[in-house]
Amino acid sequence: MSCGKPSNPMTVPTFESALNSWLARAQKIAANTLEIDPKGIKYVRIVQQTGSQISVYAFIDKSNGDVLMPASWSAPAKHARGNIYQIGNEGAERFGVHYLR
Question: Where along the chain do its domains lie?
């Protein structure tokens, strides 16, 4: 899986615009409402709310846009599942990010 920013610098969106675009695409796939929790230094946490429960949907690496599965509330699992800069490689599924196969 090739992850990271596109090689053509003329088409590289800003991190914020790529994140918002990814979130809109993931929201169409997800079963619940997704929100950005940008408090982290290295990662952006994407949370979902199911009734009164809040859980982590995904982490986004701020340095390269990789989509990571959550290992816990405060830490992502290793290995990228997708990338916010690559349309069609969102890494998103209905209840979270892709599992490695």
Answer: 11-94
